[in-house]
Amino acid sequence: MALSDHCIFTGRDGELDGTTLDEMRALVAMLAAEDRIVIHLHGGLVADKAAKAKAKELIPEYLAAGAYPVFFIYRTGLVDIVRNNLHEAYQEKIFKKLLATLMKFVVGKLTTVGGAKATGTLQTPRDLAVAIELTKAQSGEEPYQDLEPVSDLKDLTDEEEKLLTGALAADVEFQEEIQAIVNGATSDQETEVVAKGVTTLHRLSSKTIMSPEVVNELVDDAREKDSKGILLTAKLLVRVGRIFVRVVSRFVKKRDHGPYTTVVEELLRELYLANAGGAVWGIMKQETADTFQAGSKDSIRGGSTFVRQFGEMLKQTNRNPEVTVVAHSLGSVFACNLIEHLARAREDASHPLPSTFALENLILLAPAVEYELFAKTVSKRAGLFRHVRMFALNDDLEAGYWEVPFVYPRSLLYLVSGVFEEENGGRSAFDRPLLGMQRYFTRTDVYKDKDVTSVRKFFGQVPHGLVWAVGDQGPGRASDAIRHGGFDDAKGTNGAAVPRKTIDSILHILREGMP
């Protein structure tokens, strides 16, 4: 089994990288004899090596079900980047200091009846109590997991925000850590780049992986000191105050991810965003769109080239095979871009793709696509696929394991939703609705915007359109995945069993049709 018979490799800007034009032509030529084809779009967690291993694992499974598999393998490896960088941030003294201080005041705000306005101060826990609670993370228990906010919780007041920033301004240990970061700063930014040109780390100080713009602010502040020679940290204190405000606001709006997780998310968004993984996530999403742009002699885009060659093959052979798209995690963004490109190709009289072409099945596995994009897809392009089914974790599982051990006690989708996604203005978003997260389907009292509502309505009209793991509704409608990365597992290592009901459901759909 040659991977080139089944895989299309792309790199920067979605250009062919590891697959030649002749190899793609040969792959498409093999599709001419097939009645069923499955296009598999993997997620963003896995690195290239793992993506190739996954293809080798699934190729015989798909072939045995009577479908010829085609895999797009593109720039990935997010989970390794995230784990490495977040672990490094978590080891920093400044991160630990800010986390502990924020937790102390957030817990005080969430539990003080009437807030500081009524009591004159927040009833914050002792520093030792906070430290003990935070050590729970080392044993896989989420700190403050059972904390219930007071029923009359209101947004943070200016006075309450000043309680936090004033405490930090007077904290000698905090000042010493800032001074160390400033002393370790350099005018030459250090970067780390992985395969295919993705920059994974921007470091401006040897003492921290805070975003370069934050470090620059600290250096600017360090040029001024008060009458006692104490370092001024005005800009940083403003940022920390914003974190406190946003955390409380999210609780008031019921859009929090729990006390500890929400504080970690807002701390990363405000101070570490450049290195937390958000930039890499954005690059990977963009390249799933770029691959469908028009290419040139010197820039062959994998997606658009494949669709054109596939269209030419269909036109020449006058065949109409059943085509299924299986998209895992970030692959769901790829799938939406593919569907949009197919739609435009059908409408283009000069494009060889038949105007009647449509996918037989769209199968989504823990999709990381925003509701906004998916709502656009189903509202404008629903005619491009005849059947759809989504397999995803129930929220207890989604929120029940540590994607980044000791640091982040939720799944990758929670991290993407809470830190990596952007608002329309390009700013980092919080609690951004993602299709594969059950909370946005079930919490109808909180999530009411038109995109979420329209997608709920769409799936409400699709028989058996949603399968929440762990669940078994019969053949083709079962999943026993318990982690985000487990939906496309077909076999374990050294003979170990894996949860593979999702794959078995997909194979059933390929053999028997969508039940």
What's the β-strand tally?
A: 11
Largest sheet: 7 strands, parallel
The overall average pLDDT, rounded, is: 90
Category from helices, strands and their pairing: alpha/beta
Distance between the termini: 31 Å
The total count of helices amounts to 21
- Return Rg in Å: 25 Å
Number of domains: 2
List keywords for this structure.
globular, alpha/beta, 515 residues, Rossmann fold, 11 strands
Summarize the structure.
By secondary structure, the chain is an alpha/beta fold. Helices cover 47% and strands 12% of the residues.
Would you write up a description of this structure?
The strands form three sheets. The chain has a seven-stranded parallel sheet, with helices on both faces. The protein has a two-stranded antiparallel ribbon with strand order 4-5. The chain contains 21 helices and eleven strands. The chain folds into two domains: 3-74 and 291-394 and 438-512, Rossmann fold; 81-272, no CATH class. Helix 1 runs parallel beside helix 14. It is of the alpha/beta class and 515 residues long. The chain starts with 6 loop residues before the first strand and ends with a helix.
